[in-house]
Amino acid sequence: MTTVRRWGPHEAPTVVVMVHGVMDRAASFGRLGRRLTAAPGVAALAYDRRGYESAIGVGPGGLDDHAGDLVQVVDGLQAERVVVFGHSYGGTVAWHAVARGLLPAAVATYESPVPSLPGYRDDLAASTLRVADASGPESAVTHFGSAVLGRPNWDRLRPEFLDLRLAEGPAVVADLRSLADASVPTPPASVDRHVAYGSASVPHEAVVAGELAELLGVTAVAIPDAGHGVHLTHPDACSRWLLGAVAAS
Questions:
Q1: SS in 3 state form for the chain?
Q2: Which residue ranges form the domains of the chain, and what is each CATH number?
């Protein structure tokens, strides 16, 4: 696991640690990181989870591995206050880390999968694992990436970029398999919690976000016009939500 991106001053009293989802990477948080650090006293950090981009050599991991990595990142920070932002599967990692004893000031998650919730459904994860079982991880990541990006966009990827995505196939498959180990989080009262979803996402994301928020004793926030990739498409709205979480913690 390698820390590859940091925005803002090293002496900032507040650090937002951003955890990416399946088939993503630290670099995708650039727009969001720059907006977060426009606020006084805030720095932002993102890292490639094991099996992705700069950490591909570490190999894939399960939720315990990713949670341990997140704990290591947070423990290494010199900051008065840490807020963890988990996007999609990154949020599942964040809750799992809290269950293992991580105590940030706040955890904010966006459209994070928790299969034990009644409204959860993820046909893409299920179909990707079926492809992995039948044809291997490269075929699985092609199936997953084509669904997320659209087949024409997937087919237009630069060869060197495509090769790296295919090499991340084992990490994608491991992430999706490890969702079976995800549980409903029970963070201590000292950890503020925030849940959001995009108003333009598929309907079940709002359902799951609402169920998760209810269990956490908060209200889910809808980010207007955003889909699943909120940090890429709506960094301004996402940063406003996260800075509100910083202010509340």
A1: CEEEEEECCCCCCEEEEEECCCCCCHHHHHHHHHHHCCCCCEEEEEEECCCCHHHHHHCCCCHHHHHHHHHHHHHCCCCCEEEEEEECHHHHHHHHHHHCCCCCCEEEEECCCCCCCCCCCCHHHHHHHHHHHHHCHHHHHHHHHHHHHCHHHHHCCCHHHHHHHHHCHHHHHHHHHHHHHCCCCCCCCCCEEEEEEECCCCHHHHHHHHHHHHHHCCCCEEECCCCCCHHHHCHHHHHHHHHHHHHHC
A2: 2-116+183-248 (3.40.50.1820), 123-174 (no CATH)
| pLDDT tens per residue across span 138-186 | 999 999 999 988 999 999 999 999 999 999 999 999 999 999 888 877 8
- Identify the residue whose tokens are 């990006």: 149
pTM of the model: 0.96
Rounded to whole angstroms, the Cα distance separating 111 from 202 reads 10
Triad 85, 141, 151: Cα angle to 5°? 100
Furthest C-alpha separation in the chain = 51
Residues 36, 238: Cα–Cα separation, whole Å = 9
Residues 6+ apart with CB under 8 A from 139: 131, 132
Collect all residues with Cβ–Cβ distance below 8 Å to 218 and sequence separation of at least 6. Answer: 193, 194, 195
Q: Do 1 and 71 touch, CB atoms closer than 8 A?
A: no
